[in-house]
Amino acid sequence: MDFGRLITAMVTPFDGDGEINWDVTSQLVDYLIEEQKSEALVVCGTTGESPTLSDEEKLQLFSFVLEKANGRCKIIAGTGSNNTKHSIHLTKEAEKIGVDGVLLVVPYYNKPNQEGLYQHFSAIASETSLPVMLYNVPGRTGVSMSVDTTLRLAKISNIVATKECASVDQVTLIASACSDDFRVYTGDDSAGLASLAVGGYGIISVASHVVGAQMSEMIYAYTSGNVQRAGEIHRQLFPIFKGLFECPQPLPNPSAVKYALSLRGLPVGGVRLPLISPTEAEGVFIEALFH
Asked: Which residues participate in pyruvate binding (predicted)?
């Protein structure tokens, strides 16, 4: 399974009552595929506010986005959690719906050791025929999956990729030792070009909601050998990559990018508590990133 090089971790649009806005979700899928050049969409990942979505909402989103995309891009369902049994259940339900793959986050809060991580992911993978992408994001989970554990899991036939957010060093080490058919993605927009340079395959992005077309150009400039052009684009986009998370104080994802989408005429709504929307001053800062 090739999920492509530019993958968007899609926001979940909400209406004024905090319920899923299906009309805007439909618009967003078209926009991300046609205008922002997303080659795959992660549905119900961190940026999709998965912690505050019910299982019923997640399954509705998987089905809706899959039908709307209609083969124009791959659909990756966020089915991971810190409960192995529950992750297996949700993965099986996603497989029935027909998604192209699943994203499984490192279990959070309960802080398993490396053997526990291996057994968690291998147990889920053994219960599905879908391609599995691992997701290591220690800043959110409280534990980091080691390079060795990732490489061990990569030997399982349907574990085909990882979204690595620990560091470019970790991307480097995994890419240096994994097989050619195991894909290493960064989940850090600002590290995208550096990750490609050390053997990463692509980017699972938040900023691609608003600068995806430019990011796609950067990736394909690099992979076609035009390193100078790729560097130029990265430098142009770097303030946006950083600003969406640091505006002007750290703002939890996806608050800033949802605001940025509203500036583009896509009323994706606010965020569910405990996240909060940008303040007026933060909104001014976000708007200034695009001028």
From this structure: 47, 204
Whether residue 250 lies inside any domain: the answer is: no
Tell me whether residue 204 is annotated as binding: yes
Among 68, 56, 58, 57, smallest CA distance to 25 is for: 68
Residue 52 in tokens: 């505050």
Number of compact structural domains in the chain: 1
Whether 285 is covered by a domain: the verdict is: no
Domain assignment of residue 43, yes or no:
yes
Of 135, 185, 201, 222, the catalytic one is 135
pLDDT tens-place string over residues 49-65 = 999 999 999 999 999 99
Sole residue written with tokens 């800043």? 139
d(CA 44, CA 52): 10
- ∠ CA 8-88-93, nearest 5°, is 70
Enter the pTM of the model: 0.97
- Say which of 163, 185, 201, 258 is annotated catalytic: 163
- CA–CA dist 200, 205 (Å, integer): 14
pLDDT, tens only, 183-203: 999 999 999 999 999 999 999
Active site residue 163: yes
